[in-house]
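Morning run. Coffee first, then this:
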Amino acid sequence: MKNVEKYARGYFMPQEASLKWTRKEYITEAPIWCSVDLRDGNQALIVPMNLEEKLEYFKMLVEIGFKEIEVGFPAASETEFTFLRTLIEQDLIPDDVTIQVLTQSREHIIRKTFESLKGTKKAVVHLYNSTSVAQREQVFRKSREEIIDIAVKGAKLLKECAFETEGNFQFQYSPESFTGTEIDFALDICNQVLEVLEPTAENPVIINLPATVSMSMPHVYASQIEYMSEHLNYREHVILSLHPHNDRGTGVADAELGMLAGAQRVEGTLFGNGERTGNVDIVTLALNMYSHGVDPKLNFENIPAILSVYERVTKMRVSERHPYGGELVFTAFSGSHQDAIAKGMKWREEKEPQHWSVPYLLIDPLDIGRQYEGDIIRINSQSGKGGIGYVLQQKYGLDLPQSMREHFGYCIKNVSDQQQKELLPDEIYDIFNKEYVNINTPTELVKYRINEEEDFQTTVVVSTDDGVKEITGTGNGRLDSVSNALQAYLGLEYSDLVYKEHALEIGSKSQAVSYIGIKASDSKVYWGCGIDVDILTSSIKALFSAVNQMSRNMNKNN
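And here it is:
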């Protein structure tokens, strides 16, 4: 690419190595979660949410289990102010939920913020000012000392306003654009703010270190977080928080490594909505923990319902391949993948293991409200016999013989390829019925009678284009006698009859299903399926279906 020389790394590594986090294997407990959907997420929307939509979204966040929810920047607009006052005045904030509000370190904004909080039971007041080299030099044109003075004055005013306002307030400070700030300066400004706020065990202060613009690989961010964690004053009374953005596509990795490095709290949004490439996706973070057997303390047991509200009120769309939430994230089209999944699911049924372990499926889709039927295995021209058989068995209770699955698999692949589309389960079932089930042309079964006392002598009444006729046959069993009668009457020869039967697993429990495969003299195999309330009748119908397939093929070739 052109102009690569115009770019340089803009982050700052700690002065000393901070790599203790690398010795940790995984996250062992959930952080404090803070949703910033209603502030950071909302301001990123083309059409911001109206009051009713915000109230619905707030209710959903509460139901999911968020205990801290940033509800806006109340001094920024009348809309934000009104939303906060509605929550307070209509008593819509549960006692165990803390709202959070954002304010710049400017006197009139801080005072307006506390005015908006009158009557609230508990709130986090989030103070921030920009600290990065780019912001200091280009936007504010101020020295380090002047930037520190802005933060310290804001912190002092927080304490003053909190003292004058009824309510229980916790303080949070963010050196905005932390990732572009010299690490020694970030530490200095945070410690000077902490000296003013004087955190205690009863009222800890939140220090939030945002990747306002993601500028480094995740291990660099983790090293920065660990350095800050080890050098902040009042550390035992500080809640270290992360607010990763996703400019480099590493928001989730930044958060995960940041937690290994000492962070106790994460600010993010559902499905990563936010300005530019978005905020860290809390759904992905939480379910990543879940996949390791760690309770995320958030309820995502009905992802489809959450998605429905999210997409409706934000007017945003979650990509089909978005982790956990996307329509296709559990779906296999590939034949080999489908076969492995189908076998893995069967193994689980047989072994009943304690822990989840199915090929290609990180977690059980049922745990987050997805369905095996239509969510895991979907059929197109790339699909194989295992997936197609799995769909028929799971949705319709049809357990095809292995070799019949392969035969039907090629049939479905051809249809999907010709139509250039995915085939839905009902379409697959309709094709199966049309191709195999109770086929009654050119020879239709009318009725039969078997005398088991005389070597299974069988009389079968059939209907063809030539009319209704009665044919007879004998054999070493009931089905064999019917087969011999058909071969003699139709002048057909076949061998190696493959037979399987079972009760219909889904739907009417009174019906039986039989499958029969016959091999012609040219080694071609023809398959039929019979469904009937009587098991013997279903077997005979399956045989008639297979024989009719064979007859049709012979008539077509003659």
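The radius of gyration is 34 Å. Good start to the day.
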